[in-house]
Design brief:
binds zinc ion
Length: 307
C-alpha cells in the first residue's frame, strides 16, 4: 500500500500532524510541571522485574513516582508441574499481589513463555507501552543472558530505544519528545562483556517490602518454577514464617552479592560511611541507545542520594 493511501492524503497528514503535535506538546509539559518520574521496567517473565528492581521500585513509589512492571511473556511454562492457561492466570495474579505491595502498576503480555521472538509486531508493542507510559526511565535485561526470553526482551527494548521518538513508527501512538534513559538489570554473565554498575541503589530501607513482594510469588519462589521438583518443594518449610525466612536467605544472598560485588560503586554514590554499610543493593547499567545521562541527571532519575 502506498503512503498516500495509508495516511489518507496530504491534507489529512497536515491536520493529523498538527493535532498530534499539540497533544504531544501538552503531555510533555504536564510531565515537566509536576516533577513526577515515570518508570517502566520490562521483565521476560512474571517475576524478573520484581527480583531485579523490586527494591528501587518501592523507593520510587514511596516518593510518589509512577512505576510500571511489564512481563513480556505470560510465564505459562514456568513450572515443573503445571502449565498453560491456569499457570498464566496464577502468575498474573501473583505479580498483581506483588505490585500492590510495592505500590506500582503491573501488566502481563499474553505471549507464550519460552517462545518470545524479536519480531516487528513485538517491537511495536514495546514501543507503544513505553510511549503510553510517557517513560522517563526504561529498564530491561541485557541481551546477553541465559534465557532466550530474557535475551529477546533485551533486544526488543533496545530496538524500541530510538523508535519511541520516531513519529511515523506506530503513528497511532504519540511519540516521546524526550528520549528516555534506558537501563539494564544486573546479571552475572561475562561474555561478550560483563555488567557495569553505572548506578547502584541501597535497598536496605525497603528490604521488607521487597521480600513481601517476593513472598507473593510462590509458584516461583517456593515451588521452584520450571526448575522445581517434588524434592525441592519438600525441602521448603510449610509455615509462612519459615517460608519467608527461607526466601530471605536466598534473595538476601543475591542482593548482598550485588552490594559486595559493586561495593566501590556504593562508596562512590553514597560516600564511604554509608556505602560500606549497605547490606542489600540493586544495580543498573546505562544502555548506550537511549538518552545518555550525566551524574547530575542520574541523581535526578534516582532521587535517593544526598545532593
Ligand atoms: Zn525470567
Amino acid at each position: 500500500m502506498n503512503s498516500m493511501r495509508r495516511f489518507g492524503g496530504r491534507v489529512g497528514i497536515g491536520i493529523l500532524a498538527c493535532g498530534l503535535a499539540m497533544i504531544w506538546a501538552a503531555s510533555a509539559m504536564a510531565a515537566e510541571k509536576d516533577g513526577t518520574l515515570r518508570i517502566i521496567c520490562f521483565g521476560a517473565h512474571p517475576d524478573d522485574a520484581e527480583f531485579k528492581a523490586g527494591g528501587v521500585a518501592a523507593k520510587w513509589a514511596a516518593l510518589g513516582h509512577k512505576v510500571k512492571f511489564v512481563s513480556v511473556t505470560n510465564g505459562d511454562i514456568g513450572h515443573w508441574q503445571m502449565a498453560g492457561g491456569p499457570l498464566a492466570r496464577r502468575r498474573a495474579s501473583e505479580v498483581k499481589d506483588a505490585a500492590k505491595l510495592l505500590g506500582i502498576e503491573t501488566q502481563v503480555l499474553d505471549i507464550h513463555d519460552g517462545e518470545l521472538e524479536p519480531t516487528l509486531e513485538n517491537r511495536r508493542t514495546i514501543t507503544r507501552l513505553i510511549r503510553d507510559w510517557k517513560a522517563d526511565v526504561v529498564m530491561s535485561h541485557r541481551p546477553n543472558d541465559y534465557h532466550p526470553d530474557h535475551r529477546y526482551t533485551g533486544v526488543l527494548v533496545q530496538d524500541a530505544a530510538f523508535m519511541v521518538t520516531v513519529p511515523f513508527f506506530c503513528p497511532d501512538t504519540p511519540p516521546l519528545t524526550d528520549n528516555p534513559v534506558f537501563f539494564y538489570y544486573s546479571d552475572r554473565f561475562r561474555k561478550p562483556n560483563p555488567f557495569t554498575a553505572d548506578v547502584i541503589v541501597d535497598i536496605d530501607d525497603v528490604w521488607d517490602k521487597k521480600m513481601a513482594a517476593v513472598h507473593s510469588l510462590p509458584s516461583q519462589v517456593y515451588e521452584g518454577g520450571a526448575s522445581g521438583s517434588k524434592e525441592f518443594v519438600a525441602a521448603i518449610p510449610d509455615d509462612e514464617e519459615g517460608r519467608l525466612a527461607w526466601a530471605q536467605k536466598l534473595h538476601g544472598a543475591r542482593n548482598a552479592a550485588v552490594a559486595n560485588t559493586f561495593r566501590d560503586a556504593l562508596v562512590q554514590w553514597y560516600g564511604p560511611q554509608r556505602g560500606n554499610k549497605v547490606q542489600y543493593a540493586e544495580a543498573f547499567e546505562v544502555c548506550e541507545y537511549g538518552r545518555q545521562p550525566g551524574t547530575e541527571e542520574l541523581k535526578k532519575l534516582f532521587p535517593f542520594f544526598a545532593p
